[in-house]
Design goal:
The complex is a heterodimer. Helix content of chain A is 48%, strand content 13%. Chain A is α+β, with helices and mostly antiparallel strands. Chain A has a three-stranded antiparallel beta sheet with strand order 1-2-3. Chain A is globular. The N and C termini of chain A lie far apart (71 Å). Chain B is mainly α. Chain B has twelve helices and four strands; from the N terminus they run αααββαααββαααααα. Chain B has a two-stranded antiparallel ribbon with strand order 1-2. A two-stranded antiparallel ribbon of chain B has the order 3-4. Chain B is globular and about 70 Å long. The chains are: A alpha+beta, B mainly alpha. At the A-B interface, strand 1, helix 5, helix 6, helix 8 and helix 15 of A face helix 5, helix 8, helix 11 and helix 12 of B.
């Protein structure tokens, strides 16, 4: 072989296209930014994600099955543990469904109290997002500031219900009579605690202020914009196709809010705007939640003015039995549509309870949206979807 | 023989000085960030928690250094040592005060007055990349690997920007010896302004930005981005080996701050008062004041900014910092040419 031939050969040997196998990267179940125990099996090429497969179920607690051996009154203690960041908000659709099934209606004051507490839960849940999302992008300070403000909300919830995270405050046909309350009627001495509305409106002033603070600290921050604007865009048709709901859907330009379209509780009597943004990227999902805090503040202020006095509990039989039938009841949770399908064969316990949990449906878009993204964007996108693993696995 | 003894004393002094500084630095950072974030910060060990760092160091010293099964043992062990050595050695050429006269002999307050001081600094900070690359590669684990790939790209590109930002300083001073550069910044300019190299403002800004990247501090801390790649290159390290990395990182922060103070803020230059036996303390005080101001700036930035993304970081380095430094070098070179040789047509 001449040297020329050898050279030719070696060149042809080199010119074979090199195939580098993708690296399989297990993100989670123990990982700082998977919000708990989500596991993502990602095929990565360097920092680029080829495909990703979410693996869920590490936190399955079997609430649907457990509900089949609990009475309706006991199940409220389970359902507020599904999405623990907004415990009260997941009780509401369940209790509304049970009331519909039994043909009971809660007194108006109880409806308003439910509305106020739902909105407090929404603020608390969104503040968790507003605090943890910059943290996922590497900014540590907003975390402390908005978690401090959330503490005021949790104190209010605790004051009324006795629990910061798990209120278990709803009763079939009303809400629990709170201890140590000032009276609004002569018969009901167990009402909301004295001075609750004053403290609530003070807390609402704080919420306005923290929203402004967060605006200056996070919203206008160039680096935050670099990380989020145009990242993880979900077009409206894809958002509907994957069944997104709540802020994630509204950030894609679909102004769909169950509080308006279903007008459960007394939402039809208060004025508020449905926040929606056209972009569908991470920044819009962040902004929608920030603006929803302001809207919730607006709702609570109106509710404080409009709440009537009256009883907290409708007359219900001592032993609660639902007639045979089924009902689907849903409500706008802080994270989106939260629904319960209750099937009753008659008796004290439901025959079957199907939980349509928000985070689970919002999570289904992950494989589609993470394809072809970078690992830092994976964190940004996952954080912007704002799911809670307890809500995913139930 | 005495020259060796003197060198040994200087080396031991620099080592001790840096260790004490790091203990303070970690505490100051934690306290300062806590203040910004409505927290209390460490307050258990010693008054105001000042011994917290010492306690943490002791704890990690006594903990087991876990070595996972599929590591490259030699590199895995060498990496933290390289990290610490480079960080310690850089400070050897930083003058911390004006020369002191003892018994008629003048002693420079510097570990070693090298005439190639700046080149030595750049060479050693390039070496620091090896520590991170070795650590990530030798860990035999995926997150450290990603971290070390990021690190090599980031530190090499910002090394270039940093080197280029120092060229105007060298042109200005006509020397690469750091002591000479400081001496040139003594006195005042037009009688009022201190004659610091801060007039080379673009260089100062670029040096500081690359300093953030070189030390892997926020917003350029993507080498060890906890939320993305867990801990980056030091994910698999524990115990004392981890403490070495930690120590090296904070020494590097102090090094960059000290270098910024020395190269751009006049180092130990500043007004001196009092009799001769106390006057020598003032320059050291000025140096420390300037350095700690920059350290606090580092901490402040860390508390306020999120992390940049990898591709943004690279394009920022190559497309913004490096062209700007190149243009600035040409400008400074022309200005100095005019200063020294007059206008070309005159």
């Amino acid at each position: 072989m001449t040297s020329r031939e050898m050279m030719h050969r070696s060149e042809s040997a080199v010119s074979i296209e090199l195939q580098t196998p993708d690296m399989t990267l297990n993100i989670g179940p123990q990982h700082p930014s998977t919000h708990g125990v989500l596991r993502l099996v990602a095929k990565v090429d360097g920092e680029r994600i080829r495909e990703v497969e979410p693996v869920i179920g590490y936190m399955h607690r079997g609430y649907e099955k457990l509900a089949e051996v609990r009475t309706y009154a006991q199940i409220t203690a389970l359902v507020n543990r599904i999405d623990w960041v907004s415990g009260f908000a997941s009780e509401v659709p369940f209790i509304l469904g049970v009331e519909k099934l039994m043909g009971v209606e809660a007194p108006e004051r109880a409806q308003w109290i439910r509305l106020i507490l739902s909105e407090l839960a929404r603020i608390s849940s969104h503040l968790v997002f507003i605090s943890s999302y910059p943290l996922e992008l590497g900014a540590t300070t907003p975390l402390m500031h908005s978690l401090r403000e959330r503490e005021y909300i949790l104190e209010l919830i605790e004051e009324v219900t006795g629990g910061r995270f798990h209120p278990n405050f709803n009763r079939v046909g009303g809400v629990k009579s709170a201890y140590g309350g000032g009276s609004t009627t002569k018969k009901q001495s167990m009402d909301l605690p004295a001075g609750f509305f004053k403290r609530t409106s003070e807390a609402m002033d704080r919420m306005d202020k923290i929203c402004d603070d967060i605006d200056t600290l996070v919203t206008g921050n160039e680096l935050i914009k670099m990380r989020t604007v145009g990242v993880g865009i979900i077009p409206p048709d894809k958002a509907l196709e994957f069944g997104l709901s709540g802020p994630n859907l509204r950030a894609s330009g679909v102004a769909y809010d169950l509080r308006k379209s279903d007008s459960y509780l007394t939402y039809d009597q208060v004025e508020f705007d449905v926040v929606s943004r056209p972009g569908g990227d991470c920044y819009d999902r962040y902004l929608v939640r920030l603006h929803e805090v302001r809207e919730s503040v607006k709702i609570i202020r109106q509710a404080i003015d409009m709440i009537p006095s009256g009883p907290l509990q409708a007359k219900v039989p001592r032993v609660l039995k639902a007639p045979k039938g089924h009902v689907y009841s849903r409500a706008e949770n802080p994270k989106g549509e939260f629904g319960y399908y209750i099937v009753s064969e008659g008796g004290k316990m439901p025959y079957r309870l199907k939980i349509r949990s928000t985070s689970f449906s919002n999570l289904t878009i992950l494989p589609w949206i993470l394809k072809g993204q970078l690992i830092p964007d994976l964190v940004a996108i996952m954080g912007s979807l704002d799911f809670v693993l307890g809500d995913v696995d139930r | 023989m005495s020259i060796f003894i003197e060198a040994a004393i200087r080396a031991v002094f620099v080592f001790g000085f840096l260790l004490v500084t790091v203990i303070l630095l970690v505490w100051v950072e934690r306290k300062f960030v806590s203040d910004l974030q409505n927290r209390v910060g460490p307050d258990r060990a010693g008054p105001w928690g000042i011994l917290q760092t010492l306690a943490d160091g002791m704890k990690s010293f006594f903990k087991e250094s876990i070595r996972p099964t599929n590591v490259e043992v030699a590199l895995f062990v060498a990496a933290p040592i390289i990290a610490l050595m480079t960080a310690l050695l850089i400070f050897m050429v930083v003058p911390i005060g004006a020369p002191v006269e003892i018994n008629g002999t003048e002693y420079a307050l510097v570990g070693a007055d090298l005439n190639v001081g700046l080149l030595y600094v750049l060479a050693l900070s390039s070496m620091a990349v090896y520590a991170i690359v070795f650590a990530g590669w030798a860990s035999g684990s995926k997150y450290p690997l990603l971290g070390s790939v990021r690190a090599s790209a980031q530190m090499i590109s910002y090394e270039a920007a940093m080197g280029l930002s120092l060229v105007p300083v060298v042109l200005f001073a006509g020397s690469t010896s750091i002591t000479t550069i400081v001496e040139q910044q003594q006195g005042t300019f037009l009688g009022v302004f201190p004659a610091w190299n801060i007039v080379l403002l673009p260089s100062f800004v670029i040096f500081l930005i690359s300093g953030f990247a070189e030390t892997n501090r926020a917003p350029f801390d993507l080498v060890e981005a906890e939320q993305e790649i867990v801990g980056g290159y030091h994910t698999e390290y524990s115990g004392f080996q981890f403490a070495l990395f930690f120590l090296a990182e904070y020494i590097a922060v102090f090094n960059i701050s000290a270098l910024t103070a020395v190269l751009f803020l006049g180092g130990w230059s500043g007004p001196v008062f009092g009799p001769a036996w106390i006057a020598w303390v003032w320059p050291i005080g000025w140096f420390l004041l300037k350095t700690w101001a920059i350290v606090l700036f580092f901490v402040w930035v860390r508390a306020s900014l999120p992390r940049m993304r990898y591709d943004h970081l690279m394009s920022f380095g190559w497309k913004k910092l490096i062209p700007v430094s190149l243009a600035w070098i040409i400008l400074v070179a022309i200005a100095i040419g005019i200063r020294d040789f007059g206008l070309p047509w005159s």
